[in-house]
Every structure is written in C-alpha cells, then in structure tokens.
Amino acid sequence: MDLAPWHPRRILVSHTLHEGLGDYLLARRPDLEIRARGAAEITGQDVEWSEVLVGFRPPRDGPWRTLRWIHCIGAGVDAFAFRTGLSPDTLVTRTSEDFGPQIGEYCLARTLAVTQRLRQLESEQQARSWKPKHPAQLRGTRVVIVGTGAVGRGIARAFLGAGCLVDGVSLSGAGKEPFGTVRSIAEFEDAVRSARWLVLACPLTEETFHLLDRRRLAQCDGAYLINVGRGPLLQEDALPEALDQGWLSGAALDVFETEPLPADSPLWSRPEVTISPHISGLTTIPGAGEGFLTCLAAVEAGRRPALAVDVAKGY
Fold first, then answer.
1. pLDDT tens-digit series, residues 244-273
2. Neighbours of 184 (CB within 10 A)
3. Structural domains in the chain, sorted by start
4. Catalytic amino acids?
5. Which label site among 70, 230, 247, 275 has the fewest CB atoms less than 10 Å from its CB?
6. pTM value > 0.90
C-alpha cells in the first residue's frame, strides 16, 4: 500500500549499546536533525520534538505511543507493540539485520557447553582435580526450534552444520526449509517428544505469551531449554518446578520476563541454569543504520517500507 510522500527530519535515536548510531545516520544524511541519547537520558521534551523514534525500547517519558513512525533496531518489536497501547496509526518498521547466524552460534555454544561439560571441567580445574570422563556428543541429537522465521532458520542451519536433526514448531505448522519437519503449536507435545534440545525463537505476541507454560513444560520430556526469543514466551515462575521434576534437564536463558533479572530470582543459584544478559543477537551500528535509511527512502517516496511490521500480529 502506497502512502503520501513524507520527509521527516527530526530523528530521535535511543542509542544505548549503540553509541555512534546517530553519527552514522548523520554522515549519510546530513539533512537530518539527529538527537542521539542513551535510553535513560531521553526526556519527554525529546520525544515531543521528534518526528521519528529509532531505538530498541520505548523511552520512559513522553508521548511516544502517538508518534507517526517508530523504527525498532532489535530482532523483535514487542517492546513497542505488545500490550503498550501504541496508536494503530503509528508506522512501525524493523531492522534489516539478519540475527539468525549470530543467535545460532549462541545456541550452539550453549549446547556444546553442556555436552563438553565445560562448567564441570572449570570447577575441577580450580580444584586441581583430575577426573577423566568422556563428553557426550552433540552430533546426532535432535533439536526442536519453536519459531521458523529468519532467526529460527539461522539457528537450524547452525545445528544442521553440527550434524543434529532439526525440527520446527510454528503457529501454522507449515513446512519450511531447512527444518526436517514442522508441526503446529497444537502438536507441541508430539513435536518435543524425544528432543534433546528445545529452543524458543519466536516473536512475542498475544498468541505466544507464556507459550511454554506449566502444562507444556510438563510435556518437555527432559529436554534442555534455550530461550533466545523473549522472556514472556516462558512462564518463568514455573521453571524451578520443571527442573526439579525433570521435565527439563537444564536451561540457558538469554531473555527474561523482567530485565535485568532481579537479584532475588531463584534462577541465579540453579547449577543447571546458564544466564546471559540478553546478548545472543546484538544489533550492529551499520545494520541498524542501513535498515532505517532503507525505510526512510521508502517513506520519502510514498511507499510502505518492505520492513514495515503488522502491529496487530506483532511481526
């Protein structure tokens, strides 16, 4: 759908972890007015001044929900679109960056850390203890990835390269390369049966909120969970029980329902849980910048950007 040509000039850039993004945009489009701020530094006045917001998360203050255009530089747009009260008239676009290969490496590293017993070996090294034990093999094990979009496919390719069997789960259950089979969410119990690894890599939407709830956790058949999607895909308060009962053999968590993960969370002290601070797929400045500039060119030409998001769907 074509739109009326628009030439926004006042661009507010939230650049936490991406300092230099404002300079990157200005070097390529010196006609723009750029305000680059850390997320905690953005004021309501900054938001009122802006025509477009570029960032990973919404500002704490100001009328960002009624902005005409928001460009998200992360893999998912839920921070802006999921239960936020965002105006339906706001254009939301996303970065063009492919996070699949990077997140695939993260997932592969977490599984190899388990099979190669890296935590145990480090502990034994510190204790100067010599305890030979053969590691398990990753090759030949089965991985089930929930989410068959670009990120899920990137993860699948990483595991296929390591000799794993890789199946997918999606809302529709439609077959997609490079997955061996793809089942629908309604078939989750059958899909996860006998899986060694379970990866959450789908967007956060109304349909996927607490997708892995207590009932589905009980169906996981001892799989090892990796969550690289969004924290609320998992019913986090049910995870300790899932570990205690053996529904899961362990978990590597990069995202959480509350971030940063609160200091009193019981997950910090679980030896079978590995925690990382939402770093499995980091946006690069060139990736963030070029995605926005591509969308800007479309908006200025009166075209709906190819990277526009269906806010009702959440992706």
1. 999 999 999 999 999 999 999 999 999 999
2. 14
3. 10-97+283-300 (3.40.50.720), 100-275 (3.40.50.720)
4. 230, 259, 278
5. 275
6. yes
